[in-house]
Amino acid sequence: MKWIFAFLLAVAIFGAAALFTYKIFIRPELVMRAERQSSAPSVLTPDISLPEFQAAEKLRSDGKLTEARAALTAFIQTYPSGLHVGEAQDLLGEVNISILLSDYPAPEKEEYTVRGGDVLARIANKFKTTPELIMRTNNLSGTMLRIGQKLFISRTEFSILIQREAKLLYLLDREHFFKRYHLREEKLPGNPPPKINTRVAEIMAWKNGKRVGLGGRQILNSTRWIRLGTPGYVIYSEPDDSHQILEVPPPAQGIGMTASDVEELSSLVNTRTAVTIVQ
């Protein structure tokens, strides 16, 4: 029994000494180290992509749209996960639209001379585009054409990719990025499959409470829907600053975007436009 008592006494003595040493010497040192680490300034990773993005922004603000498009495309390819890739995509979309919907010269545009018997719908069908896109590109206020008139026609081949979880709609030209739009609302039937391949089935427009055709002046500033080939899938308009009052209420099912975005998108696509919807 004596050896047990001696062992416990030794443990008590050395344990107390160890505790004393920890409190007096070790713990203060650990606290000081923690304070130094917390007070030390964090080292920020330099944003090496920012100068290139700012240079592309300047090209756009200077009106050098072709150069800005090339710079932004290169930027996105170089920094696909960079801090400014989303901003670059939005800016590139604006540049692409500015080039497309104007008489700004670009390699993908072709000049066409109006001939006898030409009407806007026939020209649009010949070039696989839409009457409204020709009107907006050439700043036409009506559908009347005159023989010898020069028109810019864009040789685009658009398709649509909708990413539901990201709430983004990508407009692609020959599978290359053209512009992205943000989804506001989603009301889809049942449990949507992971992937749907479909097409644009119909462009729908309302003005003054009535359906209007796609080849006339009335379609300008109308409320648009884009009906897809899959039942229950329609891209519909929601009010925004430019369209505070819409001609028709939203459908029971579909994908909602701002009215301005649907109006723009509906002028770029047609019933040949392929649509892919993924989660």
Protein described:
With 279 residues, the chain is an alpha+beta fold. The chain has 3 domains: 52-100, no CATH class; 109-154, Roll (Membrane-bound Lytic Murein Transglycosylase D, Chain A); 159-278, L,D-transpeptidase catalytic domain-like (Beta Barrel). It has helices spanning 2-39, 50-61, 65-78, 85-100, 120-126, 131-137, 259-266, and strands at residues 109-113, 150-154, 158-163, 168-173, 176-182, 185-187, 195-207, 210-211, 223-228, 234-238, 254-258, 274-278. Helix 2 (50-61) packs antiparallel against helix 3 and helix 3 (65-78) packs antiparallel against helix 4 (85-100). The longest helix has 38 residues, at 2-39. The protein is globular. Residues 2-32 have low confidence and may be disordered.
Descriptive labels:
two-stranded antiparallel ribbon, 279 residues, alpha+beta, 3 domains, disordered N terminus, Membrane-bound Lytic Murein Transglycosylase D, Chain A, L,D-transpeptidase catalytic domain-like, 10-stranded mixed β-sheet, 12 strands, single chain
